[in-house]
Amino acid sequence: MKPIALVGKPNSGKSSLFNLLTGLNQKIANYSGVTVDSKHGQFLQFDIEDLPGLKSLKSTAPEEAIAKSEILKFAEHKYPILFVANAMQLEDNLMLFSEIADLEVPMFLVVNFKDDLEKSRTTLDINKLSDQLGCGVHIMNSRSGEGLEELKEILNKDFQIPNTICRSLYDKVEDDGIHNSYNRVVAFPQENDVETVDDEFHKRQKTISSIVKSVISREEVIDHLVPSKKLDKILLHPVYGLLIFLAVLYVVFQAVFALSGYPMDWIDAGIANLSSYTRSVLPDSWINDLVSDALIQGIGGVVIFIPQIAILFFLLGLLEHTGYLSRISFISDAFLRKFGLSGKSIIPLMSSWACSIPAIMSARTIDNPKERLAIIMASPLMTCSARLPVYTIIIAVIFPKDESFFGMQGLALLLLYMLGVVATLVMAYFFSKKSNVPSNQFWSLELPVYRMPNWRNIFYNVYLKTKSFVVEAGKVILAISIILWFLSTNSPKKDSYIEAQYQEAQKTYSHLDISKESIDLEYSYLGYIGKTIEPVIAPLGYDWKIGIALLSSFAAREVFVGTLSTIYSIGSEEESTIVNRLKNEKVLSTGAPRFTFATSISLLLFYVFALQCMSTVAIVRKETGTWKYAIWQFIVFLILAYFFAFVSYQVLR
Questions:
Q1: What is residue 69's DSSP assignment?
Q2: Alpha carbons 404 and 138: distance in angstroms, whole number
Q3: Which is nearest to 297 in space by CA: 119, 653, 562?
Q4: Exposure pattern of 417-452 as b/e (b: 16+ CB <10 Å)?
Q5: pTM of the model
Q6: pLDDT tens-digit profile of 268-319?
Q7: Which domains does the chain have, with CATH numbers?
Q8: How far apart (Å, rounded) are the C-alpha atoms in residues 87 and 145?
C-alpha cells in the first residue's frame, strides 16, 4: 500500500474528504505515546492517513505537533501529501501549504468548497494556480461530492507529483541541505531564529497574496448582499450577538426536553412492561430477580436517555457545521480573557457538554501552556452528557411536565448548564493566576463562511456519539447492576431476624404500607453499606438509598439513575416509570416525600461540582504527566460538591 497523508488547516473539509475517499475502509488507532486518534483508510492502492488539522509548522500545540512530526516523516521518505485548502480562505491556507512545500515533499492541492466560491461570485483559475505553485491542483466540494470522481481518477492514473515544488515561493539556498532558511527554523527551530522567521514570514505572505490575486477574479458585490457579512453584523455584535447566543442555548436545552418527551415516555413504559413481563413468564427464582430487577432496570436507566443525548448532539453539530460555533469563539474572546482564557478555549469548553475527556484532549490545540492547563483542570465542571440523565430525572421530579414548548424544565436545565459555565470560569481564573506554567497570549481565529450543514456527517456523528454513550455507560451499569442486585438480595442476618424486623416495622409505622421487600433491602449487604455512609450524607438530605446510588456513580455519573432504577424496582410489581417511583418514595419515619425540593436541589448541586468519572481522572493524569493535578482536582471538586449541597439543603429544607 502506498501511504498518502491528508493535510490541511481546521475547517478545510479534510476529514469529510477522507470519509468520501475511504468509505467504510477505515480503522482507528492511536499515535504512539498519546491519546489522539490516528485515522487510516484504504482507497485503491493507497493507505490514506488523516492527520490532525494544524495552522502552521511553527505551532507548539501538542496535537498540531503530532501532525508536524508525521509531515516530517513523509518528507524524509518522499511520500506524497494531499493538501486540502478552504477555497474561501485560500491565501491563509497556502501559507501552511508553502511551509510544507519547502520540504520538497510531493504534494497535490485540493481546493475545497467550490460551492462557496460560486455563491460569492468568485472564479478560481486552477490551471494558472497549478503553474504558479508547480504542482497539480483540483477543485471540488467535499460536502456534496462534486468533483470526487475526477479526484479519484487523478489519484488512480495521474498521481505524478514533481520532486521540487513551489520554487516561486522561496529563494533556494544552494549551500543548505534544507532549501529554505524559513523552513529550517520552522521545522527544526534553533535559538535566535525569531528575526529570521518574522522576516521570511512577511516576504512569504506578500508572495502568496500576489499569487492569489492573480488566480482569483470576483464580480462586484455590494457588501450588505453577501450573506456571511450581513449575518456577522448581527451575530458578532457585542450586545446583540451575546443575547442571540444565550437565546440559542435556551432553545437548544428546551428542545432537549420538548422533543424527547414522548420517545422517553415510550421507552420508560416499555422497560417497565418488559420487566413486568419477564417477571411473569420466568420461573420464580433468583434468575427471574436478576433479569427483571437488575439487568432490565439497569440497562433501562441508560437506554431511556438516547432521545435526549441524540437531540443534544444533533443541535450542537448543527451549530458547528453552519459556522456559528466559530462566531461564538469570536464574541467570547474578550470575555474569556478576563478569566485567563481566549476565544480558542470556547471549543474545548463547549465540547465538554458532550464529554470532558475529548475536551481535555482537544486542549492540545491551545498553544498557550497556561491556558491549556486551565482548560484541563476546569473543563470537567462543564455539564457533560453523563450529567444529563441525572439532571433530567431530578428536574422531572420537582417540576411538573409543561405541555408548552417553553417551561420551567428547560429553564432549570439551562440554569444548571450556566452554573457549570460559571464554576468553570472561576476555576480557570484561579489556575491562570496561581499556576507557574509559562504563558503565551497570542491567538488568531479564522471565521468560516456560513454554509448549509453536511447532514450525513451530522447524523453519522450523532450515531457515533450516542452509540459510544450507550455502550460505554451500558457496560459499567450492567456490571454495577449485577453487583447491586447481589448485594441487595443477600444479607448477613438470618431470615428469622429480618422477619422480626418486618413485624416490628408494621407495628411502628402502621400508617404506612411497609412491604417485606423494603425491609429485606434495608437489612441486605447493600443496606448496611448505605447505613454506614448515611451519617456523612444525611446533612445533605440523603438517606442510605440515595447514598448507595451516589457512591456507585463515582465510577461514572450516569450510573446514578440506573442504580436508583435498580434499587427502587426491587420488590416492585408496579409498571411505573422511574420518575413516578422517585415521586412516591417516602421517608419511613414521617411518611413525607423523600425527594423534596430541598433534597433534589442538593442532589443537582452535588452533581454540578463532583468529579464522578474515573476516566476523566485518568486522562487528566495522562495529559498533565502527573498524578498531582488529577488528585488535587478530584479532592477539591468533591469538597465543593459537599459544601454547595450542604448549604442548599440546610437553607431550603
A1: H
A2: 51
A3: 562
A4: bebbbebbbebbbbbbeebeeeeeeebeebbbbbbe
A5: 0.56
A6: 788 878 888 888 888 888 888 788 877 887 777 667 768 877 887 788 778 8
A7: 2-218 (3.40.50.300), 235-270+307-434 (no CATH), 464-595 (no CATH)
A8: 15
